[in-house]
Amino acid sequence: MSEYSMKFIPSTEKCFMDDTINSKPEITRLSMMRNERLGFQLCYTKDGSHPQYASSPALEIDFPFPDKLRICRVEQVPVQMPVYQGLKNDNYLRTEPGLYPDLLLPYEKKARFLFVSGELRSLFFFLEDENGLTPGDYTLTVRAKEGGEIRAESSLVIHVVNAMLPESTFKHTQWFHYDGLAQYYGVKVFSEKHWKIVENFAAEAVKAGINMILTPVFTPALDTAVGTERLTAQLIDVTVTEDGGYLFGFEKFDRFVKTMTKVGMKYFEIAHLYTQWGCAHAPKIMAKVKGRTKRIFGWETDAHGPEYRAFVRAFLTAFVAHVKALGIDKKCYYHISDEPRPNHIEAYLNAKETIGNLLDGYVIMDALSDYALYESGAVQKPIPSLNHLDTFAEHKLPDLCPYYCCSQSQEVSNRFMAMPGARTRIIGTMFYKYDLKGFLQWGFNFYNSSLSYYPVNPFSDTCGDYMVPAGDTFSVYPGDDGKPWRSLHGVQFTEALTDLRALRLCESLIGREKTMALLEEGLDRPITVFDYPKEQEYILAFRERINHAIENAIR
C-alpha cells in the first residue's frame, strides 16, 4: 500500500476520522447542468503504520476552469446530542456523541494539505458558474506531491450538459434569526455592522436555495421561554400617540426589503402576530411612549384583549397599505401562531377574527399537523410536518408546503448530522413526486439554547444545549468577517433543491409521466415520505438518468 491514498467520492458521503478509505465508494464521472452548483468530495488518508504522524505534501489541482472551483476542508465538530436516545433507527450513521464531519471551512492555498496517519479526511469541491459553463467533458485531477514526486493522484471527469436549470419556483424558507448574528459578532441589532452581516448571511441563504425570508416586523415570537424575551429585532418603529393610538415608521423595513431584494430574496414571510404553541399572548413589541422606548406588549399581554386587538388591526391596516405602495404586497406571506394544537383552536379563531378581512387576498400560513384542525377552518394554509404530509396529500390540498424539525427523527428524511447524506438529499425526489410548492425549516442560524435562555457558540455546541439533535438548529456557521461558512448537512439539502429543478426541467421536455418513470426506475415500489431508497447510489443513478434524458431531448 502506498503511504498516501486519495479518491473522489460523492457529496452525500460523510467521512469520520476513524473511517477507512476503502469503505468509501469512488466516483470517476459526474454530469451537471451548465449553471448547476455541483458538489463532490476528495477523501484522503495516510498509512496508519507510518511512524511520522502527519505530513503535508503540496496540493496540485489541474482543471480547465480553476476559478470556477471553490474548495472547503470538511472539519469535524463536537456533537453532544446526535439523536433522541429513545428514538433510534437503522438509518443513522452513528448514534453516540463524538466528532462528526460537518463544517465546510474555506480552503486557502497557503493552508497545509495535511495527511494524518490512520485518519480519513476530505475536501469538499464546489463547481459553479451562474452564467453557465461551456458544455463538454472536463477532467479534474488532484495530486499530492512531495519533493516534486507524485505521492497520490485521483481524477474525475465532469460532463457539462448543454442546458440551464430553470429558476426555482419552489418557495423555500428557513427561519433567519437576527439576534443570533448580533450576539455572536457582538454588534448592535440593525447597526451598520449588523446590516452588513445580515446581508452576507442572506446572500448565502439565497445560494442555498432559500427565496423567502423571515421578516421581523416585530421580534419573532419563536422558541422563547414564557416570561422571558429574546434580544429585540424589530423593523417597525411604533409610537404611541397621546390619544392612545399608534403611528408606524417603516424606514428600517424599507431598508430590509431593499437589502433582501438586492441579494435575490423573492418573498417576505411576516413574523407571527401571536406567540407560539397556544396563540395566547403578544410578541414583544417596543414603542416610544412620551419620548421613551419601552415594551408595550409581551408575555404579560392577553392577546385577545381589547388593547392588543386594537394594535393588531392598526398595524395591519398601515402595513398592508405600505407594502402595496412598495409593490410587494403579493410577495408577503403572513403567520398567526406557530404550531397550534386542537386545544388552541378557540384562541386561534379569536386571533383570526381580530384580523378579520384585513388580510383578504393574502396568504396566511402556519405549521399544522392535525388535519381535523385544518378541517375546522381555522388555518387558511396549513404547513404540515413531513410525517403527516400523506394525510393532507390524500385530501388533495392544493399548493402543499410541508416542514420538518426535530420531531421528524423516525423514518422520514431530515438533516441531522448523524444521518446519512442520502437521507437528507432524498427529499428532492419527494418534492417532485408530491408536486410540492414549498418547504419550511426553522433553523438557518439559530445560535441559542433551548427556548433562547442564552446564546451558544455553534462551533462547540451544535444542538442548542441538548435541545435537539445536531443539524436541526442551523445550516451555516458564523465565519470570519461576518460571513457564513457552509455546513455539509446544509449543502446536502441544497442539492435536493437542485435535483428538483433538474426534474422539473426534464418534465418540461419529456412530460411528467416519463420523468416519474425515470425517477422510480429500478425500484420495486413507489417513493413515499416513509418508503424511499436509502442508498446514495440511487441518487447518483437517478440524476444521471435525468441528465441524460435532458441532453437527449435538447439535441
How would you describe the overall organization of this protein?
- The chain has 12 helices and 24 strands.
- The protein is an alpha/beta fold.
- Strands 1-3-9-6-7 form a 5-stranded antiparallel β-sheet, covered by helices on one side.
- Helix 6 (371-375) links the parallel strand 20 and strand 21.
- It is globular.
- The model has no long low-confidence stretch (mean pLDDT 96).
Residue windows where pLDDT falls under 50 for at least 5 positions: none
Largest sheet features: 5 strands, antiparallel
- Helical content stands at 25-40%
The tally of beta strands, per DSSP, is 24
Q: What's the number of helices? A: 12
Global geometry: globular
Task: Indicate the radius of gyration in whole angstroms.
Answer: 25 Å
Whole-Å distance between the termini? 46 Å
Strand neighbour order, sheet with most strands = 1-3-9-6-7
Average pLDDT value? 96
Oligomer: single chain
Kindly estimate the percentage of residues that lie in beta strands according to DSSP. Answer: 15-25%
Which structural class do the helices and strands define? alpha/beta
Keywords, separated by commas or semicolons:
555 residues, 5-stranded antiparallel beta sheet, alpha/beta, 5-stranded parallel beta sheet
Brief summary of the model shown:
The chain contains twelve helices and 24 strands.
Q: How is the secondary structure organized here?
A:
Elements lengths: L3 E7 L18 E5 L4 E9 L7 E2 L2 E5 L6 E11 L18 E9 L8 E2 L4 E7 L8 E11 L2 E13 L9 E4 L3 H8 L6 H16 L4 E4 L21 E4 L5 E4 L1 H13 L3 E4 L14 E5 L2 E6 L8 H21 L5 E3 L10 H11 L7 E5 L3 H5 L5 E3 L5 H6 L26 H5 L1 H7 L4 E4 L34 E3 L5 E3 L1 H23 L1 H8 L16 H19 L1
Parallel strand pairs: 2-11, 12-22, 13-16, 14-17, 16-19, 19-20, 20-21
Antiparallel strand pairs: 1-3, 3-9, 4-8, 5-10, 6-7, 6-9, 10-11, 14-15, 17-18, 23-24
Helix pairs in contact: 9-10, 10-11, 10-12
